[in-house]
Specification:
With about 425 residues, the protein is α/β, with parallel strands linked by helices. It is about 40% helix and about 15% strand. The strands form three sheets. An eight-stranded mixed beta sheet has the order 3-2-1-4-7-8-9-10, sandwiched between helices. Helix 4 (about 100-110) packs parallel to helix 5 (about 130-145), helix 7 (about 205-235) packs across helix 10 (about 285-295) and helix 11 packs across helix 12. About 45% of the residues are buried. Bound molecules: nicotinamide-adenine-dinucleotide. Nicotinamide-adenine-dinucleotide binds near residues 38, 42, 105 and 124.
Length: about 425
């Protein structure tokens, strides 16, 4: 049965970066949307019209609330069913092992609401097999219905890129899948109403692998340029110039740039979902992933080593030096600090006795690393720092002021022109 018609009742489980953006878009196209999250404070804030996701502005959220078709909830007491439910809950690693407990509890909370003809889609990034082997059985057990025969089930990976204004949820093609032809048809018609283009694949396993392939590709290529940046520096060759030159090739090359390490919810985590499964199922190591983890995990240490070397050239120690970190989040123009390399860099420098300050207009006070004083980016702050480490190239930062007022800048993003007082990674 095609549940996706007219006023579709949609439940989005998890109102984070992925779930909230999806809920907003669904309201925009006319769905009745319930946004469920176990975090009561988050729900209260959403109900009051305050978004914590940069890409979802308060005005957009408030407009959604004003339609009467978006209801943020922390419990399912007043929900008696749905046409489509999307699960967008975290999939972290716990001591290097995939933690699917959030998906399990999300599926359990939905199971009692699944009725004949309903559709459930998993969006959380996870290893192949999760939709069919974990989510399906939990839904079947809790509903007494059979996946495929009684309700539809599919997987559609999210490609949201926080801070990216060009490639949005709507304009980025969305991969869709179902456990059978009917599920695929319903899942596809649901997303066809939300995004410009859907790309159907033959099974949830392929869709799950697609997402991990994309993120592993990025992770491995970042590791490649990171490792090369370290060698190029030791060889006295400008890696950034080589990257710019290579990027002029219109085929067979994709631009990736070095940085202080990878952060966020995806790159430090997702490839390990795949390597964990390869090891568990096949008893083999996914060497590319392990090597990339190794290189990227050590970039914060390398940044500190380069800073120590720069101070050493001036006959100075880190102890007691005032060091200003520019950017704390994991990437430009976002306030997401999950797995951000700034944390390890701050800890290493604090252990060496640095007087640490940091500036990041996207970050709440409480999210600054321990022992780091939050400051505004001013000429005085720049001039007073013995060294500035540019970790994130937020648009809000005035690059020319940084160059003009700083005594020394270690630029880990290739953001500033290299010069007398600016050294690139
Ligand atoms: N953030 C991104 O850019 C991005 C991009 C693509 C894919 N993803 C994937 O999407 C998934 C969600 O990521 P996110 O960034 O939105 O995470 P998030 O942490 O921003 O949001 C997840 C939300 O789910 C809630 N939650 C946890 N367990 C729950 C449960 N049982 N029931 C209801 N709510 C629950 C949390 O309280 C949180 O608000 C992850 O698998 C992630 O890898 C994220």
């Amino acid at each position: 049965m095609m549940a996706v018609m007219g006023k579709t009742r949609l439940v989005v489980v998890g109102q984070g970066y992925v779930g909230l953006a999806l809920a907003m878009r669904a309201v925009e196209v006319g769905f009745d949307v319930v946004g469920f999250d176990v975090d009561g404070d988050r729900i209260k804030s959403l109900a009051a019209g305050h978004s914590f996701v940069e890409d979802v502005g308060d005005d957009l959220l408030q407009a959604a609330l004003a339609t009467g078709r978006y209801r943020p909830i922390a419990g399912f007491d007043e929900v008696d069913g749905f046409d489509v439910a999307v699960i967008a809950v975290p999939t972290p690693l716990r001591e290097g092992v995939p933690d699917l407990s959030y998906i399990e509890s999300a599926a359990r909370s939905l199971a009692g609401l699944v009725g004949p003809g309903a559709t459930v889609v998993l969006e959380s990034t996870t290893f192949p097999g999760t939709t069919e082997e974990l989510v399906g059985p939990i839904l079947e057990q809790g509903s007494g219905l059979a996946a495929g025969a009684d309700f539809h089930l599919g997987y559609s990976p999210e490609r949201i890129d926080p801070g990216n204004r060009t490639n949005t949820l709507v304009t980025t093609p969305k991969v869709v899948s179902g456990i059978d032809a009917a599920s695929l048809a319903v899942v596809r018609s649901f997303y066809d109403r939300l995004v410009e283009e859907t790309v159907a694949v033959s099974s949830p396993r392929v869709a799950e692998l697609t997402k991990l392939l994309e993120n592993t590709f990025r992770h491995v290529n970042i590791a490649l340029v990171n490792e090369l940046a370290m060698f190029a520096n030791d060889l006295g060759i400008d890696m950034w110039e080589a990257i710019d030159a290579a990027s002029t090739k219109p085929f067979g090359y994709l631009r990736f740039t070095p940085g202080p390490g990878v952060g966020g919810h995806c790159l430090p985590v997702d490839p390990s979902y795949l390597s964990w499964q390869v090891r568990r199922r096949l008893g083999q190591s996914f060497r590319f992933v392990e090597l990339a983890n190794d290189v990227n995990d050590h970039m914060p240490d390398y940044v500190v080593r380069r800073l120590v070397a720069a101070l050493n050239r001036r006959g100075e120690a880190v102890l007691g030096r005032r060091i200003l970190l520019l950017g704390v989040s994991f990437k430009r123009n976002v306030g997401d600090c999950r797995e951000a390399p700034s944390r390890r860099i701050a800890r290493l420098l604090a252990d060496m006795g640095a007087d640490l300050r940091a500036c990041d207009p996207h970050i709440e006070m409480g999210d600054f690393p321990a022992g780091v004083a939050p400051v505004e980016l001013t000429a005085d702050e720049l001039a007073a720092a013995d060294a500035v480490v540019a970790l994130v190239d937020h648009d809000a930062f005035d690059a020319s002021a940084v160059v003009r007022h700083s005594r020394y800048v270690l630029d880990t993003r290739g953001w500033l022109p290299a010069g007398e007082n600016v050294e690139r990674l």
